[in-house]
Amino acid sequence: MAPSAAWIAFLAGLGKYASQNDVHPGVNTGLWVANSLAWYLYPEKQSSIYGMAKLSKKATALQTVQGQAMLSTAAYLGALQLGRTRAEAFAVSWAVQSATALRFALTKADDVDCSRSGVYIWAALSAGIAALALA
Amino acid sequence: MLTRFIAVVYLAASVTSSVNFDNLNTAAAAVVAANGASGFITPSSNLKGWGMTSTTASEQAALRIAATWQLAAAAVLLAPVESLSSSGPYAAAAAILLSIPSIETIGETQKPKANCER
Q: Are A93 and B77 a contacting pair at CB < 8 A?
């Protein structure tokens, strides 16, 4: 509870400050990138920080889904940060979504009784959306 | 499932009617938001849709947390680029706030059960 409350207070304060002052966009992007990588790559370690240690395999896999959502957002913000257009950043974000879904299907889906075909469809849909943005 | 279906139909309709980036962005954000809303409101049904028919309370709570970040992702996609320095942190703060009950649920399921036997 304490780490969550601290994050909420910090992020709400940052959001409020950034709405009234000039804050470098890299601050927001950096926070998204660091946290998304932490949740995507080390879900068990992150869980223990928030008092959710010793989760089942399925719950841990679902936390990488949380990491996927954060990572695709971080990719969008990162691409904008690097001077890409909104459409290009959107395409990067959906390409990340597609790649992470594909990785989930190949490495985790069977372990957690998740329908591989459903995840493949999501990966294909995401790749299609990325391609459409660049069309 | 129904929300996801509606969102995908909306996506297909907007793409086929006119492929312009604003339509695509709105439609794609709607898909993400619908999936997030479905996972947050009915995690058990959402997981069944992915083939996971048997899930525990903490697994459903883990999905609810993931769903809050999908809602945040949709909010960021829809936010004007010039306001992302403030809307990004606000979206993340809202996601963490919405996650707290699920974090507590998972924490509770991991506490040792009291031994009531005499």
A: yes
